[in-house]
Predict the structure.
Amino acid sequence: GKEKSRKYYVDDAQVEISAQTVYELDSSGRRIRAVEYSEYAAEQVRKLHASVAGLRSRWTDSEQRALLLDALEKRGVSMDTLIEATGCVDADPLDLLIHVAWRGPLRSRRDRAERVQREESAFFNQLNEKARAVLGDLLDKYTDHGINQLDDLHVLEIPPLSKHGTVVEIAEAF
């Protein structure tokens, strides 16, 4: 497929991991079934949420998002492992979950940031220059590091956002 396999060298022999598999007991507890990791993750996401709308709704709240990620971890699904297994390093985690669970479109964080700027241009244009610059830097942080960077207000105290002033001064720009 499109994913690149990783190469490892063990005692001068080349070894490649081309797919990750999960072994799980079936509902009777008697048979072991092998499932590709991304398909296993998809099943677990669908068990937690029956629809894309339900997942999106929960994802928008940072506390609910943390609970969801914890529930997935308890079911053996790690976002880091899922990203590695799918090769979707730049994907927004929500889009990745929707993609593996319901074959939804897969967007990069950069695509999402550009889309918000394009579709919400009227909102951006009504802001003063400093507020637009702050939002631009926040979108750049999201593009580079993901949503978790934005959940903590201390992000305003580190470069490049700190160049806009203190947290209070940044708030006053809005």
Notes: Strands lie at 6-10, 13-17, 21-25, 32-36. The first strand starts at residue 6 and ends at 10. The chain has a mean pLDDT of 88. The longest helix spans residues 129-145.
